[in-house]
Amino acid sequence: MCVVALAAIPVGVYATYVEPFWLRVETVSLAVDGLNEVDGLNGVDGVDEPIRIGVLADLQTTAVGVYERDAVERLLGFEPDIVLLPGDLYQFDAGLFDERAPGFTELIRRIVGEVPLVYLVSGNTDTVAGLRRITEGTGARVLDNEIDVFELKGVSVWVGGTTLFGDDAAARRMARRLAGGGQGLAGDGVGLAGGGDGDSDGGGDGDGDGGSAGVRTGLGVRSGSGVRILIGHKPDAIELVRQTPVDLVVSGHTHGGQVSLPWFGPPLTLSSVPRHVAAGGLHELHGTPIYVSTGVGRERGNAPQLRLGVRPSIGIIDLVAGDR
After folding, report:
1. pLDDT at residue number 203
2. Least C-beta-crowded within 10 Å: which of 102, 120, 223, 231?
3. 293 with 282: CB under 8 angstroms?
4. How many angstroms separate the CA atoms of 106 and 116, rounded?
5. Count of alpha carbons within 13 Å of 38, Cβ hemisphere only?
6. Cα–Cα distance, 231 to 161 (Å, whole number)
7. 141 closest CA partner among 164, 163, 114, 112
8. 56-71: buried (b, 16+ CB within 10 Å) or exposed (e) per residue?
9. Cβ contacts of residue 43 below 8 Å, gap of 6+?
10. Cα(first)–Cα(last) distance of the chain, in Å?
11. Statement: the pTM of the whole predicted model exceeds 0.90
12. pLDDT value at position 192?
């Protein structure tokens, strides 16, 4: 018993002071048929190089420090084309917002300075309103059950973001439109919400309810083809596209369980997806690829401030042309 007790000390030190800051970069590749459809008139010529997505999930920090800035620099070093932040950017009391927010704004501004296509959704510890205050004037976009559309490397890209504690009906409508490639919306003036800063200004969604599930247009787009990506804080967002798969779902939330046991995996993930999916990485569920990030930060508040068997990570997802 004494030996076991003594062994627990270095394990506790490692789990508290080493692994939570031992950041890794996870790189995965995903074949997407939509990347073949570069020229709708002349066959299936694929893109010459991948579309690279950087995932920076669950910073979940009380303030921006050296660790968070280093994580951003490591991400930018991989030269992503798009950066996705699927929720839990910050975690602190609302009374500290004015004091702490500028640090997060500078972090987002640094990312946008290198990668103009930056998208955020809210999670458990942040809010749409808070994220919009942080990203105001940076060029990053906060998606509140909305879709943004742009063209990248000759391919139409549709990015939909679902809000964790938002309007469920709006989330379902957004997901249906995303799965359909937004057919009937792009280019016809229907459901277009304005604003490059992520603020919806009442453009409407075509359903007459004043803006929810809107579609923002970016750099010019051809509808009905290309790549469709859904961002949700929890991997459970994949249920929105269970019947109508998209090309990729990106999420965080689980932290990979934050503790993972050998031959078992994470005992607790706070998600309804299978444990091996919630543990992190790229998987397929209900016919849709899903990437679950183990996150950069760790749970705050009364939760144990540790990681064991689940290193923090940033994600690099290369979308490549599928075999045709």
Report:
1. 36
2. 102
3. no
4. 14
5. 16
6. 5
7. 112
8. bbbbbbeebeeebeeb
9. none
10. 61
11. no
12. 31
Residue with tokens 């800035």: 69
Residue 216, beta-bridge partner list: 148
- Residue corresponding to tokens 């909305």: 146
**Structure tokens that stand for 16 in this block:** 């508290």
Which one, of 232, 244, 225, lies nearest residue 290 by Cα?
232
What per-residue confidence (pLDDT) applies to 186?
Answer: 41
Three-state SS annotation for the chain: CHHHHHHHHHHHHHHHHHHHHCCEEEEEEEEEHHHHCCCCCCCCCCCCCCEEEEECCCCCECCCCHHHHHHHHHHHCCCCCEEEEECCCECCCHHHHHHHHHHHHHHHHHHHHHCCCEEEECCCCCCHHHHHHHHCCCCCEECCCEEEEEEECCEEEEEEECCCCCCHHHHHHHHHHHHCCCCCCCCCCCCECCCCCCCCCCCCCCCCCCCCCCEEECCCCCCCCCEEEEECCCHHHHHHHCCCCCCEEEECCCHHHCECECCCECCCCCCCCCHHHHCCEEEEECCEEEEECCCCCCCCCCCCCCCECCCCEEEEEEEEECCC
Please count the residues of the chain.
324
- pLDDT at res. 37: 56
> Which residue, 118, 209, 228, 215, is CA-closest to 167?
209
Residue 113: predicted pLDDT:
97
For residue 142, count CB atoms less than 10 angstroms from its CB and return exposed for 0-12, middle for 13-18, buried for 19 or more.
buried
Cα separation of 107 and 13, whole Å?
Answer: 29
Kindly give the parts of the chain with pLDDT less than 50.
Answer: 39-44, 184-224
Quote the CA–CA distance of 90 and 122 in Å, as a whole number: 10
